[in-house]
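Re: beginner question about structure tokens

> Can someone show what the tokenized structure looks like for a real chain? I only ever see the sequence side.

Sure, here's an example I had lying around. Input first:
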Amino acid sequence: MESNRFLRVIRYHWMTVVVLMALGAAAALAYAWSVPREYTARADVFVAVTGSSTTGELAQGSNFSQQQARNLSTVATREIVLAPVIDELGLDDSTAKLRSRVSTSVPLNTSMISISAVDPSPREAARIANLVAAKLSEVVPTLSPQVDGSSPVRLRVIENAVPPNLPSAPHTTMLVILGTLGGLVAAAVVVLLRLMFGTRVRTVEQAQEASGAAIIGTVSADRTADRAPLALLAAPHSLRSEDYRRLRGNLRFVQASHEHRVFVFTSSVPSEGKSTTAANAAVALAATGASVCLVEADLRRPSLGRILDLPPDLGFTSVIAGEASLDDALVAWGPDRLHVMLAGPIPPNPSELLESDRALDVLETLRAAHDIVIIDAPPVHPVADAAVLARLFGGAVLVVGAGRARERDVRRAVARLASVGATIHGAVLNLARPTRADRRSYSTYSLAPEASRRQRGRGESPRPDGMTRAADDDRPTAEELHEEPSTAGRR
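And the corresponding structure tokens:
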């Protein structure tokens, strides 16, 4: 896995990372608040050996006291010490339960025993630690060997336990840090799962990397696209219309040596906007004065009739079946006389129909009669129609829906096209999210200088479609757009 791809996925899903880390920290903080507070008090006891008079005896006594400190530290948590503590303090705990709250430690190379006691009450914790130290001092002389009728081992409390001011548990800061790290680990797992099971394509870089082809167009997402799919006629001064003009300009350089060019528009999966992109590209190319034909070869889920508002009575399947002539199925649509042939009635065997000699003859006839033929083909994954058409008619233009196609779907589509020898002329990132800077720069530039100054004088802001509110009624009609296609294309 490439590191730059992993970092890019983290950048795209940074909100997920932040939210999971915040949830982990919040969960840890809630746990810390719900857990009862515990306080730890500590008393220190020194172990001394008496009866040493020479230097050698002192050295031996020091080693002996360190050994006794380690031995006696285990005695402090035994019943012989804890039972009197329970009786004297009147505790309800059993010996085993009190043992779980009392602990001892011996610092390295010392003769000191540290006795710690934990309790929800800081005062009670201090009382338990001090009493355990006192009882241990009383018990030790009875356990150590007698020398001349007395025990050479003496215990002395050198520091009494005091009630602590701050709780020892829960450690809120540590819990929050651990919770945040746990959220980070969960976010990393989510990112890895998205990398393994498919990341949605959202940017030009992702689309280019997944398709392995040049990006010949980027179409901005528009909330009005469902109501008015043909942007060049419904909103000729919008950012989306300008995107289609850029796509048109790039398509001019594809198959530039061919007198009659064919572009098969397809996508990896359904609902990526390939039909809308193909229709707008055809309208944009027809506006330049070229002879353009738009053919609907998606015989399973045709949608150009809805986009162009044409009745789906006659079409491609009617011509193939011999029920209509080619001239009857072709419709001159729009101000630029774009030739359109819809899919027609949906057949029971679409794949066989598209691969028949009759269908290929019809498409060859259309190519010979027009400068540019745009074929709206089905998606690559569900069926093999698009791969066959792309192989037979020059190559494919792959439409990638931002936020709808996954990287693995695009890669599989490219592999399927390559397996049949089809060429990919380029990819179009559809439904891309434009930045505010893109909208602002285009809307400011698309306004006439007088209108821009007039807006600033009235305190209005330019609309994303490049028109002021007062100028809506002056929007050019489709006929005016047809009369001056070169002016629209130069903006």
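Each token stands for a local structural state, so reading them left to right follows the chain. Residues 172-197 form the longest helix (26 residues).
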